[in-house]
Amino acid sequence: MNSTIQKTQHKPDNKFCEKADALRRENMYKEAVSNYLNAILIDRNNTESYYGLGICYKHLKQYSKAIKYLTTASELNPESYETYFELGLCNLLDGIPCGAIKNFIQAIQINPDNPEAILQLGAAHELCEEYDLALMIYQKLIENSPDFIKAYDHKSTLLMKLGKYKEASSVLRNILKQKPNYYKAYAGIGVCFDKLGKKFDAQRYYRKFLSEEPFSNNAEFIKNRLDKISERKNLHSHLKICK
After folding, report:
1. pTM higher than 0.90 for the full model?
2. Closest listed residue to residue 165, CA positions, set 139, 202, 129, 128
3. Domain map of the chain by residue range?
4. For residues 77 and 68, what is the distance between their CA atoms, to the nearest angstrom?
5. What are phi and psi of 129, to 5 degrees?
6. Least confident range of 26-30, 140-144, 226-230, 235-239
7. Neighbour-count burial of 172, counting CB atoms closer than 10 A to its CB (0-12 exposed, 13-18 middle, 19+ buried)
8. Greater confidence, 232 or 231?
9. Closest listed residue to residue 87, CA positions, set 126, 51, 41
10. φ, ψ for residue 233 (rounded to 5)?
């Protein structure tokens, strides 16, 4: 009987945490916060409450509070991949990439087979302007997880940012080998050829993209680029005739 009483005292029945979890699943983050706080008042060692509270504050864009409660959750349960991963994301959102690096590394050590933390580690190094290291991480991720399209996407975007359009177009073509209906890659390849001065090839990929994604967010930009290229070609032809 004594052992039962001790167990109840150690792990009290915490209805507030259950209610908060249900509210969080319904995206009712403000309502969930008050219930998580009540749950913590009942049980100061309730890891789930600190974690849930951190996630709610993340969605409410109160990142410093999210980091505070997720840090407590990680101290109570240092073997939780999800906690360190979310801590890393909150650090990124709060503009603290160095803190993010530390937490993503911790997450990777707990679960080295999950590519998401490795991807975000590369993004954190990218934000620290450690571009060579970020590219190396993306490439290693591509080699180890060839079906993980996000790694190709991040690598090609960074290469384009660095003005390495030929390399970027090669990575984008590799995406299409893995996922032929990833039409965003056509737009990227078009931009690469455009920047390299290969206007005919740029037009081809731009048109391919528009034929598949005519109402996407990038469609207006692509249409404008096609118009500009056509204007230049027409002007060039006119000048030739005048000569």
Report:
1. no
2. 202
3. 15-77, 93-145, 151-243
4. 14
5. 65, 25
6. 235-239
7. buried
8. 231
9. 51
10. -65, -40
CATH class of 15-77: mainly alpha
Question: Among 190, 198, 141, which Cα is nearest to 168's?
Answer: 190
User: DSSP secondary structure string, 40-72?
Assistant: HHH-TT-HHHHHHHHHHHHHTT-HHHHHHHHHH
Residue 188: name the closest of 4, 1, 174 by CA. 174
Angle at 126 between CA 55 and CA 83, to 5 degrees: 20
pLDDT at 235: 45
CATH class of 151-243: mainly alpha
Dihedral sign computed on CA atoms, order 146, 150, 138, 207: positive
CA-to-CA distance for 70 and 50, rounded, in angstroms? 6
Per-residue burial over 178-210, b if 16 or more Cβ lie within 10 Å, else e, is: eeeeebbbbbbbbbbbbeeebbebbbebbebbb
**172 neighbors 152 (Cβ within 8 angstroms):** yes
